[in-house]
């Protein structure tokens, strides 16, 4: 099931502030995309709009190429998993899962035996076969999360919308469920849209990342493209730790303000600019500057952490690369791997 | 395969996308279904049962001209009745104030044996029919009643005097105070009190400087609710009041008497005045409460 | 603050509280039953079986059932409407719904006379069509409706507000329509709050005196509810009969209080 949004704009209730500003997005059938961005970027609003929970908007929302009014929303076969799961507290797990089938009009409703067989299948699928009669408040966070997923899957949706589904889970459960969800997506041939504020999670699970900021889509690409060609400094900063070096371009060379940073050739025109670089891409070049290492530690995750003192400032650099420089040795910083964004000084 | 029990596939119906026409947009703005239905029922219910009769109440006095209104307002008996209602309600609410704080404190903090029974008892004045309260208090404080006899030895007469009215109103108003103070005390963080104790506050200072300001807004709205209720109270008062004009005749009773004389506009004028008094008191109290709680928030920010 | 002083102040405060509860709340309750049983249980019961008393009980039951049903349905609709949507004028609507609490019961009766009484707006029309609302059972129902108006909404709304809209939205996305969402998701979840509100409505409906007194016309056996009958008996110096009826009402009130406490405990215990 494909989803297309064309110049989609949505206002905050009772004001002219735009929650979503001219969104153009296409999600192909079978894709797994993640909406990422800081809180307040409009990720959840966008997801709710796709789910049909935002009735007033400008622009177009097409599902499988067809415009859809919100009134026939349940028939669109959309599964939605809420951030806090929104399980029905007074119903057993089995009743929660079968709810979408129980409320079908009589002529479309499968008979009782079919429903309970299906519930059992889903319970097996979410690996909780014995909890059919438990109540939601007797479950752990991870179990609730999976029940919410099973409930959304019971009506055989083609489109699965997940709002921060791993938010309340501990790191170990998070990783397991993440993997399991991805397998499920592939097995059932779903189209999945996931909202998360955690870029690592998004990079790990999704085919494509849609980075949002202030109600707009900043960049929409796969993980490699995002890493190699971030569109804006925000995207780069959002996806990982970033160091900034201010300076000036003169005669196709970048001249940093920091005297211990080495100039390098660039293609951009003259003017003030800033170089953005991942800490791991910084290289130390011996005997070319007055920078030296103040301290170095090895983190338990296998990365090295250096505190580097240049003449002007102190930098924290975490990198998988080990350097052989002694603590009192002087060196310069090579940042030629960094990126320059036009129009950003 | 488990995922094939559905034979039906729904065809997508296609209403024009994003269409908004004015009257419909109000009804369609909500994602959850049922807004037109529930909103309609609510409007009908409120409109027929509350708004319509209250419009009649406000409009009716003017039908017979302003002269009748002025005549009613100049009636010394009416003024006296208002004075009695007002002062008795105020007395009762003021006397209930310390009792309410005491009971709420006992229930939340001290929890002596049997506090569950006390909790249940607090609701009794609200649940017991006013007529029952009325005849019971009249008998209890009457010349031959248990309390009446006891107080007669001390030379006090309660029944058939304004004091009787106050007693009845105190009974009626008490739950309002206890029930509004209780949740605030319950949610009051114990760390604040502990901090006050560690900073060397005596129990009295702790209560007076830390707890009282925190529960003041709630106390005030409880006071307002009790007062508004007391000012209009009828059933529990008339049996014990004695109903002597100019002395122990309350305004609601005067409405009833005017009605019995078929003086509808007179009755309605008094009613409007009574309602206005109650509403102004409530509005004043909620305004004050807003001011007070805003002050508290400001202090927290500082 | 030494432990000894603490326990003394605690002792004093608790003592005061016991005294207040005993003198102000329990003593009247004890008096009701003492007076009712003054001439024995048998007499008390036989006064309740007098034709006028039975008629009063029947009328009260009739009025209470109608009023509770109407105000429960209206209250549910209003609570749903006010908690699940946001719209202009919501606060004003809430204010209107809560207004009857601060209206004197006498006024609650008077307003219906202004509409349907002989001198009222539609009095002549009603007389011409041979219908009577004021000084008859419909008037009593209307007055009681007004007095017990806000209670269901008031108990239901805070609870539903706290629940949020997630469960309803989830149900809706799973294909449930409005009625299915209401009956299978919202109300089962809020059942204790709803029951508590219904009980409160019932209790107030049974015991309403001032409003009913104004519109009823006090015809024994026809338009006299239980509280009105108590007044008639009391003013006729039939103390035992009056207090027997009062004891019956007090029993109703006490069971209401106990049940509501139980309900409220159950819905406070639910994790949110």
From TrEMBL, chain A:
The keyword Transport applies. Keywords: ATP-binding, Nucleotide-binding, Transport. GO terms for biological process: quaternary ammonium group transport. Transmembrane segments: none annotated. It comes from the Bacteria. The keyword ATP-binding applies. Pfam families: ABC_tran. Residues 3-239 form the ABC transporter domain. This is Sulfate ABC transporter ATP-binding protein. It comes from Acetobacter pomorum. The lineage of its organism: Bacteria, Pseudomonadati, Pseudomonadota, Alphaproteobacteria, Acetobacterales.
From TrEMBL, chain C:
Coiled coil: none annotated. It is found in: Cell membrane. GO terms for cellular component: plasma membrane. Keywords: Membrane, Sulfate transport, Transmembrane, Transmembrane helix, Transport. SUPFAM superfamilies: MetI-like. The lineage of its organism: Bacteria, Pseudomonadati, Pseudomonadota, Alphaproteobacteria, Acetobacterales. The chain crosses the membrane at residues 12-33, 53-80, 92-113, 133-152, 239-263. InterPro entries: CysW_permease, MetI-like, MetI-like_sf, Sulph_transpt2. Pfam families: BPD_transp_1. The complex is composed of two ATP-binding proteins (CysA), two transmembrane proteins (CysT and CysW) and a solute-binding protein (CysP). This is Sulfate ABC transporter permease subunit CysW. The keyword Endoplasmic reticulum does not apply. It is a multi-pass membrane protein. It comes from the Bacteria. Residues 57-264 form the ABC transmembrane type-1 domain.
């Amino acid at each position: 099931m494909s989803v297309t949004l064309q110049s989609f704009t949505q206002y905050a209730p009772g004001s002219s502030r735009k929650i979503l500003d001219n969104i153009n997005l296409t999600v192909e059938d079978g894709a797994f995309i993640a909406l990422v961005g800081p809180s307040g970027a409009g990720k959840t609003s966008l997801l709710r709009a796709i789910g049909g929970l935002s009735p007033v908007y400008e622009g177009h929302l097409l599902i499988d190429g067809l415009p859809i009014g919100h009134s026939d929303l349940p028939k669109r076969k959309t599964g939605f998993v809420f951030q806090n799961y929104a399980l029905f507290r007074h119903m057993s797990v089995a009743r929660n899962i079968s709810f979408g089938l129980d409320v079908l009009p009589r002529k479309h409703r499968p008979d009782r035996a079919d429903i309970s067989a299906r519930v059992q299948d889903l319970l097996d699928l979410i690996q909780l076969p014995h909890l059919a009669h438990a109540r939601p408040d007797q479950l752990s966070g991870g179990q609730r999360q999976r029940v919410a997923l099973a409930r959304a899957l019971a009506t055989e949706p083609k489109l699965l919308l997940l709002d921060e589904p791993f938010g309340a889970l501990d790191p170990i459960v998070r990783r397991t469920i993440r993997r399991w969800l991805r397998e499920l997506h592939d097995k059932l041939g779903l189209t999945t849209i996931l909202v998360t504020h955690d870029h690592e999670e998004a990079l790990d699970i999704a085919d494509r990342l849609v980075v949002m900021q202030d109600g707009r889509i900043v960049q929409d690409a796969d993980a490699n493209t995002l890493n190699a060609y971030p569109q804006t400094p925000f995207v780069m900063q959002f996806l990982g730790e970033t160091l900034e070096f201010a300076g000036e371009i003169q005669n196709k060379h970048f001249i940093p303000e920091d005297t211990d940073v080495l100039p390098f050739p660039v293609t951009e025109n003259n003017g003030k600019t800033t170089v953005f670089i991942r800490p791991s891409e910084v290289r130390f070049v011996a005997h070319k500057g007055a920078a030296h290492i103040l301290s170095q530690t090895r983190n338990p995750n296998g990365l090295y952490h250096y505190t580097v003192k240049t003449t002007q400032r102190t930098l924290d650099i975490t990198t998988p690369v080990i350097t052989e420089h002694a603590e009192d040795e002087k060196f310069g910083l090579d940042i030629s791997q960094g990126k320059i964004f036009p129009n950003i000084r | 395969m488990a995922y094939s029990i559905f034979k039906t596939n729904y065809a997508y119906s296609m209403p024009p996308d994003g269409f908004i026409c004015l009257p419909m947009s109000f009804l369609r703005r909500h994602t959850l279904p049922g807004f037109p239905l529930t909103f309609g029922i609510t409007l009908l219910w409120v409109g027929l049962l509350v708004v319509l009769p209250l419009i009649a109440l406000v409009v009716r006095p003017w039908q017979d001209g302003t002269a009748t209104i002025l005549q009613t307002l100049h009636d010394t008996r009416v003024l006296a009745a208002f004075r009695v209602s007002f002062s008795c309600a105020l007395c009762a609410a003021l006397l209930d104030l310390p009792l309410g704080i005491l009971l709420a404190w006992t229930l939340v903090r001290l929890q002596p044996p049997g506090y569950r029974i006390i909790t249940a008892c607090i609701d009794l004045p609200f649940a017991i029919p006013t007529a029952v309260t009325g005849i019971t208090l009249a008998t209890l404080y009457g010349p031959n009643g248990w309390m009446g006899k006891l107080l007669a030895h001390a030379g006090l007469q309660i029944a058939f005097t304004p004091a009787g009215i106050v007693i009845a109103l105190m009974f009626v108003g008490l739950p309002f105070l206890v029930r509004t103070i209780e949740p605030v005390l319950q949610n009051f963080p114990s760390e604040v009190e502990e901090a006050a104790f560690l900073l060397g506050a005596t129990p009295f200072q702790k209560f007076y400087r830390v707890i009282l300001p925190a529960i003041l807004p709630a106390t005030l709205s409880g006071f307002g609710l009790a007062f508004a209720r007391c000012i209009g109270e009828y059933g529990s008062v008339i049996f014990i009041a004695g109903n002597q004009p100019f002395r122990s005749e309350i305004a609601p009773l005067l409405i009833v008497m005017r009605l019995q004389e078929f003086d509808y506009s007179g009755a309605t004028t008094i009613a409007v005045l009574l309602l206005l008094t109650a509403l102004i008191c409530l509005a004043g109290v909620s305004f004050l409460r807003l001011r007070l709680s805003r002050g508290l928030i400001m202090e927290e920010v500082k | 603050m030494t432990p000894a002083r603490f326990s003394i102040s605690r002792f004093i405060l608790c003592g005061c509280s016991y005294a207040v509860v005993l003198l102000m709340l329990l003593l009247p309750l004890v008096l009701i039953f003492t007076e009712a049983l003054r001439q024995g249980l048998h007499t008390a019961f036989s006064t309740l079986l007098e034709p006028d008393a039975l008629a009063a009980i029947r009328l009260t039951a009739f009025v209470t059932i109608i009023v509770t049903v109407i105000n429960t349905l209206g209250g549910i609709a209003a609570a749903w409407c006010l908690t699940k949507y946001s719209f202009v004028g919501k606060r004003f609507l809430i204010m209107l719904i809560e207004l009857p609490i601060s209206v004197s019961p006498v006024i609650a009766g008077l307003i219906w006379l202004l509409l349907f009484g002989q001198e009222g707006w539609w009095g002549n029309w009603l007389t011409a069509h041979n219908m009577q609302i004021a000084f008859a059972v419909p008037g009593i129902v209307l007055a009681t409706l007004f007095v017990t108006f806000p209670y269901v909404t008031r108990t239901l709304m805070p609870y539903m507000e706290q629940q949020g809209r997630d469960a309803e939205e989830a149900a809706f996305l799973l294909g449930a329509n409005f009625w299915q969402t209401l009956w299978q998701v919202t109300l089962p979840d809020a059942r204790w709050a709803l029951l508590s509100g219904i009980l409160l409505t019932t209790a107030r409906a049974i015991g309403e005196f001032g409003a009913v007194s104004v519109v009823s016309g006090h015809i024994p056996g026809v338009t006299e509810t239980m509280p009105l009958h108590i007044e008639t008996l009391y003013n006729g110096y039939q103390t035992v009969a009056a207090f027997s009826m009062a004891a019956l009402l007090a029993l109703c009130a006490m069971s209401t209080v106990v049940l509501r406490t139980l309900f409220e405990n159950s819905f406070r215990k639910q994790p949110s």
